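Q: what sequence does this backbone want?
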């Protein structure tokens, strides 16, 4: 493993819950926080205190669990949100401020000078309140890059520990992410946290490039939940950091299937069968060449080892199967099939798959075998 460490700040309980239509109960929030902490997630963003007393109570309850993970709360960079964050028991507050001219002009009707002055004022105030401060740069990807660097330097001068680069609309691609994060890393000594959205399906890729460029922290959500197309999925990001970059996150990946199921059920957002890492079908193989290769040696077709996740390969029969797969399935049923018989049964399996769109059951396989071997018997001839 590479000695460098990347810290996961999981925002399932904040941005994840911002998914339209999702609202966790207090119990669900507590059990998700517990599950994330058990897996070793070092930081989590747990809510938005300014939403009101109920939200604050849940945040306090999570803080009261005494989990080993550090807790962050989200607020706008203003008096009201900072006041609401006080007394919630969080270790860090993320004070968000729009940094693109588009948001400044068309959303908050303010100037770049207002941004710099607010950072100076509210970062100090947050520190005085006893919390570590992260400056959340909303719409950072559409901000002027030189101005964004000024923002980072102002945050550093004011005493912030970290800056969050939010690709709020998921508009970046990996190369531009690299350039933007590299500029911030070279121009400041702050921790840099990447917050990616998945509107072009690039959230995980952009997060990885941010790490390559110097980001020390990354935001993730379980199953990639989050606004619109969601955020970078924790299971993808962590597995990729470990396996592709050799970077440790301290997270036990075998917890992902359970956490994924928990969040899918609490959010009412089922996980697609082909969802990387946690999807039900991502270690299932049907294609003849793949199954034959796996049977010879898993190294042939195994990119991610399912055992790491407490899962295993599953081989199924279907339209794209080959004879080796058929012979193996029958040998598991205690029947030694010749290659010729396997070829005959395969024809039946293909017809079955197109009709039913599912693998055959054991009973159906035995029936196919009985039918094909019967039809293969030499018919009694005139003299037979
Ligand atoms: C990109 C993101 O994910 S940011 C996180 C977004 N998350 C959420 O919005 C979920 C929780 N939100 C809420 O509960 C509410 O929106 C609240 C409590 C924050 C605010 O509620 P309301 O006061 O009713 O305002 P409303 O949501 O309608 O409008 C947002 C207001 O915040 C202002 N605002 C937005 N960002 C900021 C900011 N960083 N700093 C200061 N003000 C801001 C807007 O300009 C607008 O105020 P205005 O009417 O003075 O123009
Ligand atoms: O400003 C921030 O903290 C980031 C907010 C956010 O979720 C986003 O911009 O996508």
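A:
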């Amino acid at each position: 493993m590479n000695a460098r460490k990347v810290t996961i700040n999981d925002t399932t309980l904040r941005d994840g819950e911002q998914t339209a239509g999702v609202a966790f109960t207090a119990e669900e929030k507590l059990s998700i926080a517990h599950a994330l902490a058990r897996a070793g997630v070092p930081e989590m963003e747990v809510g938005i205190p300014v939403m009101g007393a109920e939200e604050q109570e849940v945040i306090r309850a999570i803080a009261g669990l005494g989990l080993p993970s550090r807790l962050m709360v989200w607020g706008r960079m203003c008096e009201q949100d900072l006041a609401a964050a006080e007394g919630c028991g969080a270790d860090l507050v993320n004070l968000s401020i729009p940094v693109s001219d588009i948001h400044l002009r068309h959303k908050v009707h303010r100037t770049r000078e207002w941004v710099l002055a607010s950072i100076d004022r509210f970062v100090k105030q947050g520190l005085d309140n006893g919390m570590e401060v992260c400056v959340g740069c909303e719409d950072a990807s559409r901000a002027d890059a030189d101005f964004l660097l000024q923002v980072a330097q102002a945050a550093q001068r004011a005493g912030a520990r970290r800056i969050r680069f939010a690709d709020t609309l998921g508009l970046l691609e990996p190369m531009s992410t690299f350039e933007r994060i590299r500029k911030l890393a070279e121009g400041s000594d702050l921790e840099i946290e990447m917050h990616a959205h998945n509107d072009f399906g690039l959230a995980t890729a952009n997060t990885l490039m941010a790490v390559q460029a110097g980001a020390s922290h990354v935001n993730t959500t379980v199953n990639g939940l989050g606004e619109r197309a969601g955020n970078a999925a924790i299971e993808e990001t962590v597995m990729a950091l470990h396996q592709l970059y050799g970077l440790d996150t301290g997270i036990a990946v075998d917890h992902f299937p359970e956490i994924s199921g928990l969040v899918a059920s609490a959010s009412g957002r089922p996980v697609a069968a082909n969802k990387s890492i946690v999807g039900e079908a991502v270690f299932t193989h049907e294609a003849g060449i793949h199954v034959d290769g796996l049977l010879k040696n898993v190294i042939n077709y195994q990119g991610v080892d399912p055992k790491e996740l407490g899962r295993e390969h599953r081989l199924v029969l279907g339209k794209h199967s080959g004879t080796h797969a058929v012979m193996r399935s029958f040998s598991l049923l205690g029947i030694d099939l010749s290659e010729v018989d396997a070829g005959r049964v395969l024809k039946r399996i293909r017809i079955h798959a197109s009709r039913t769109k599912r693998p055959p059951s054991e009973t159906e396989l035995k029936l196919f075998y009985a039918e094909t071997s019967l039809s293969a018997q030499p018919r009694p001839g005139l003299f037979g």
